[in-house]
């Protein structure tokens, strides 16, 4: 296989919604793609679009220098690559699966001990829409390895290389999901209150979008505060406690589950109690960091 051909071909192992999106992006960019998945139906669907079939993991690894993994978690990587350990030496594994930073570091060590290069990624996308303007991918691991294959992977999404720590992509990826998951639940609760109050969710949404435009301001302000121990003012903490109670009342009056707001309120109340005990304001950031009880 020539260097030119190798640079324009890749294997993708794992054809869930994200893996299929990756295959489509590679094919659209004119890159030759070999695919493997436990479910042959998903392989058939990608082959119909122009991908090449690998019946085994070994065939997928042998087909190209670089293999992209899109699996449920890192434990699946051991199961999948374990089927073809003898085919790993000299290969490059780009694991774009989600998991914890420590599991990514352990996975990187495991792959390298078996003779392959490794770098990790965290795909920040709008669902499985990696072509969305807001989508991008965090990468981490040895920079020379990433740089050597960055162009090949460029069709997937804009790239954000973070550093040599194999777990760093997952640190940033999971940190952003930490913000996103509560937002999903909060939006469900908010729209449930609108609907069960007898009003139109569609009428509400433009106001929610407008309010979200202030989020960058708050993130910038709180990031500065959190670099200095966190935002804490006893009167303001009590105000947040009271505000949370108003949200709980508005939700429960119409039969909406306010468990999420009860949880938020518990943090404001812990901060108030800690502040009263310490005789100085204690931030929720300090509580979450485990710096005070």
Automatic annotation (TrEMBL):
Provide the alphabetized UniProt keywords: Oxidoreductase
Q: InterPro entries of this UniProt entry?
A: 6PGD_dom2, 6PGDH_NADP-bd, HIBADH-related, HIBADH-related_NP60_sf, NAD(P)-bd_dom_sf, RedAm-like_C
Which residue numbers delimit the NADPH-dependent reductive aminase-like C-terminal domain? 165-289
Among the Pfam families in the record, one is: NAD_binding_2
Q: Name one GO molecular function term.
A: oxidoreductase activity
Origin: domain of life: Bacteria
Start and end of every 6-phosphogluconate dehydrogenase NADP-binding domain? 10-157
Family to which the UniProt record says this protein belongs: Belongs to the HIBADH-related family.
Protein's UniProt name:
3-hydroxyisobutyrate dehydrogenase-like beta-hydroxyacid dehydrogenase
Please tell me the species this chain comes from. Answer: Nocardia fluminea
């Amino acid at each position: 296989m020539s260097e030119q051909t190798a640079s324009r071909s890749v294997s993708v192992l794992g054809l869930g919604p994200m893996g299929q999106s990756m295959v489509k992006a590679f094919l659209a960019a004119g890159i030759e793609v070999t695919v493997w998945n436990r479910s042959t139906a998903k392989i058939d669907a990608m082959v119909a679009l122009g991908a090449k079939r690998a019946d085994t993991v070994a065939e997928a690894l042998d087909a190209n220098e670089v293999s992209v993994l899109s699996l449920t978690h890192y434990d699946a990587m051991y199961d999948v690559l374990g089927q073809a350990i003898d085919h790993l030496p000299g290969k490059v594994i780009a694991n774009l699966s989600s998991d914890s930073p420590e599991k990514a570091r352990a996975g990187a060590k495991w792959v390298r001990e078996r003779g392959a290069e490794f770098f990790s990624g965290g795909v920040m996308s709008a669902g499985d829409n990696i072509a969305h303007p807001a989508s991008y991918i965090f990468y981490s691991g040895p920079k020379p390895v990433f740089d050597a294959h960055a162009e090949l992977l460029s069709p997937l999404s804009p790239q954000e290389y973070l550093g040599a720590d194999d777990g760093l992509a997952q640190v940033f990826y999971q940190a952003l999901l930490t913000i996103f998951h509560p937002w999903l639940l909060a939006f469900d609760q908010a729209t449930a209150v609108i609907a069960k109050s007898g009003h139109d969710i569609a009428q509400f949404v433009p106001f929610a979008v407008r309010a979200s435009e202030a989020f960058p301001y708050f993130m910038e302000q709180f990031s500065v505060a959190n670099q200095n121990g966190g935002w804490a003012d006893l009167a303001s903490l009590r105000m947040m406690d009271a505000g949370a109670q108003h949200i709980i009342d508005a939700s429960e009056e119409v039969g909406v589950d306010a468990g999420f707001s009860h949880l938020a309120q518990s943090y404001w109340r812990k901060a108030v109690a800690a502040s009263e005990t310490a005789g100085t304001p204690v931030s929720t950031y300090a509580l979450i960091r485990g710096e005070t009880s």
